[in-house]
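Protocol step 4 of 6: record predicted structures for both targets in the notebook before any analysis. Target 1:
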Amino acid sequence: MFFTKSYLLLSLLVLSICSKAQDTLQDSIQTIKISALKIDTDLKRSTLSVNAVKINQSNLQNLSLQDQISNIPGLISLNAYNFAQDLRISIRGFGARSPFGIRGIKLIVDGIPETTPDGLGQLDNLNLDLIEKIEIIKGPASGLYGNASGGVIKIDTKESNDNYLINGSYAIGSFGYQKMNLSLSKKINQTQILLNANQTKSDGYRFNSEFESNLFQLKVKHSLSPSLNINWNTSIVDSPLANDPGGINLDAVEEDRLQARPQNIQFK
């Protein structure tokens, strides 16, 4: 009888400790809000296939969007570093047949569609250093953004800080990689201003794979009321150089894996 009472008391004590630990854990976990469903929803309460990625820019080289979405289940990206053809993205098979670019998947950046009416999307004019959050919808729920949507990639970029702030960075790497980034942000009364300039260039790993990209972005947000804002986004992209080395067969790889396809050089 003594052992039975002791066992019951020990069980109740363990249950109490587990309950308190669970409450503490729930309090410490940050709630993730999903806005891609057009109604703000907690991620853990959503019954749809949605992924949210909070970007930590300090750990990324930011040569391709693939660096930020490579861990999403059901999403495959190719041609990450072929800047002549842009990144190819497939969500659950949609977009897999596209020879270049992003097809069948809706791209939205700061609420503005980046997908053309024929379903083709590109992210050449997106400064990857400004991305703050990415939300991805998979499955039938993507129909919220139009017919025949194989998926939705919703990208939110940074906004200006409360105080005047200037950020600059310069990075170098192998194969002639150079990247310069300069941001200026300021809040004036109810108006937030963000100005960014970015230049990226590289000689590439293979011959005839050089590229250079210059980006300029201006974001202005003016709050008329707590629930009404006016947004102005301007993006300018200049890519004077984006060579494509092309594909080579196994014999050419064994001879020299760095060489380019002869036809790509001949026809430029």
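Target 2:
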Amino acid sequence: ELAIHNIPYKIVDKDEELTRNDDRFIHGDAADKATLIKAGIDKAKSILITSHDDSLNLYLILYCRKFKPELQIISRSIHPRNVTKLHKAGADLVMLFASMGSNTIINYLNPDEELMAVEGLSAFCVPVPEQLIGISLAKSQIREKNKCSVVALIQGDVQNLNPDPFEPLIEQDEILMIGTNEAEANFREYYSLQEDTLEIEE
């Protein structure tokens, strides 16, 4: 999917059989600093942590957040009880597969309802606030100030899933974000946005 959307990526895996003869696959331990540097963490905008061990996921979130504070960190969670811990450790998004499966079913049965994307979070779309016009995503501090994560920029009929973080936002853009209901409310209050009803087409 990343390749289809022309998003460059690296995959780190300890299992040599799962790594291919391709420079996008790195054989090594993600808990090893040298391996992460080889994978290009210093240049990455986002990191997906998908191990089967929540303790390792927690460690990697803490390590990656400390190594590069501006990273968008998306983590898998195996057990429901660990979702809050992973968020507190610094994950922007936590995906609990059981909840994602049930949410997908609910969304399918209720297509007019707001999309529930991951555990405890929902997707919402807002116009670029007046205060952010001419400001880049990198300087907007949306995640730090409002606990929301930018998923894409909607520019006309185009959804830009890999927006340039240093490109200034323009008035005609809309921002597709993921956050809790509280985070969305805080964002709207912070930027004095009305609770508009927006339709997001898949």
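Step 5 preliminary note on target 2. Residues 54-67 form the longest helix (14 residues). The CA atoms of residues 27 and 111 lie 41 Å apart.
Proceed to step 6 after PI sign-off.
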